[in-house]
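Hi,

Apologies if this is the wrong queue. I'm a grad student, and the batch job for Prostaglandin F2 receptor inhibitor b from Hucho hucho produced an output file that my downstream script rejects. I'm not sure whether the problem is my script or the file. Here is the sequence I used:
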Amino acid sequence: MENLSLLLLFLSIGVSHARVVSVSPGPLLRVEGQPVSLRCDVTDYEGPREQDFEWTMQQGEAGSIQVISTFDQRYSDVSLSDRVTSGDLSVVRLGDSVVELRIREVRSSDSAAYLCSTPSTDSVFSGNYNAGVTLKVIANTLKVAPKAPEPVVPEGGDITLSCNVTHHLTDSTYLSVTWSIQRPGIPLVDILTVGPDGDVVTGSDSAQRYADGGIRLVIRRDGAFGLVVAGVTQADAGMYVCTGRDWTREEGGQWKNIVEKTVEMGAVAVTPTARSLSVVAKSNTTLNIDDTMTLTCLVAAGNLASLALEVTWLVDGRTAVSLGRDGVVSNGSPSVGLERTGPGEFRLVVRGVRGSDKGMYSCRVRAWVGGGGRWYQAAEKTSNPVQVLVTQIKPNFAVTLTPSSSPQVTGDPTELACHVTNITHFLAGGRLGVAWEYTPLPGPPGDRLTTTQTTLPIGSLDAHGNLKSGTLYRDRLESGAIVLTRVEPDTFKLRFLRTQEVDMGVYVCRVTAWTPSRQGGMEEAAEFLTPPLNVRWEPKRPSLTAVAQRVREAVAGGATFEMSCTVSHVHLQDPGYSVLVQTQESVDSATRTVLSLSPDSVLQHGGATDPNRR
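Support response: The file is valid. Your script probably expects a header line. Output copied below for reference.
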């Protein structure tokens, strides 16, 4: 029985409750006029789930003042009843065992030690039934005095945002400042914050720009905070706002914002670069060969100093030379250069001009804003065109076409020579090219290439000696039946190994003078055509005569028969022959082949030959 009593006592002690009442950790420092919430909760209690709470306050040695209760509406001290009635003082239940004492606008007279008590609902009085926290209310000395930024800033320029945030240094509070921008239809976006511990925190849209130096922080000695937004774009236009905050450190080292003030700094509009960008090219000029050409491109803009310019000179719409925004020249050469000679002034220099340098020149400018890894093209504009004329004395020479070998009959070789003489004004490094052309004789179609007198290209040799074949002559040129040659620097030849009747007609030789161009190739400088040359002969139709003769006549079976075949020709050169020997039993009977001999002397037996006799 004694052991059972001890066991019951032990169980009783093991399940007993010890009420715990706790409040917000303190002491708390708050600013006059700001809302304040003091939390109170109770745990490990017996009785109803919903607990009641009472708040009292004590200032110095004075007695306790009843503030508010969750269950007694007449609990509040008469000095606080008006504030309770107006809702300035209230208690809000957050749960069955959690409430908050809320002060809508705290006053300096609210500085006191606040005690939260819970009436006991426990069967045994155990634990703590109240807890207290000290609240200190200080005057609101936070001041935010921004300086209005320039209302209009050119694209690519800088926006300077100065904001002076101060307070009285009577308590352990710390300042922070935040710059934000309000764009039409978009919520306020933070740009950058200098925290109470001096740390810099950037907004999500500003982190990379701050890292690239596009946003810079400046803190002046007088306590004013300055922010410079460099290389502005259209996205930087809007209303700028400065927010100052006062902070205190609470238990656990956590920062608590106790008061803040937001002030509009002013609206900023960004002027587009395209609106003020001006590009002018100067001026029309006439030059001689080997002169030096100088053209100037003048660029003006309202924000010229903030722009990175990319300048390109165009000739007849083609790029001649470019100067990048990084100062690197593209497509330049020792004779072609582009340089910046002053703010907004760019000079194109071409030394030793050639005829190919003539044309319409214009200056294209692309304006870039930004910096670091953040560049974007703000505007592009092309200047008025200026005309550049190059006076040159073209090469001059005479060309003649003579037959070196004329055909007498079809199949004879033909050779025509094109001679270039009396060459003057031909630049060093120049070369000659030739093109051969043919016009057929009028007449019936026959075997002619065309029935009309259309000029047909035979082939040409360019300045580098490359052969280009005419469509109708390609096969004969590729097989070597027709040959184009340059036998001397000033002499060209056209040769037909076997002239055909379709080759009769009128021939001309077209000689072109080529000179070195600015781009490194060759350009046409002059062209001369020979007088036409007729190539024709009296066509003579070829003919063959074949005579068969008995050499040995067979008079009986088993005897030998021998015959000869004599061939003669007219108007044929070195022909080859094929021979066919046939037999016929009678004039009316069928013809049978005995044997044949090809032009290559290949012998074949015919069907009339007994295989045993072959």
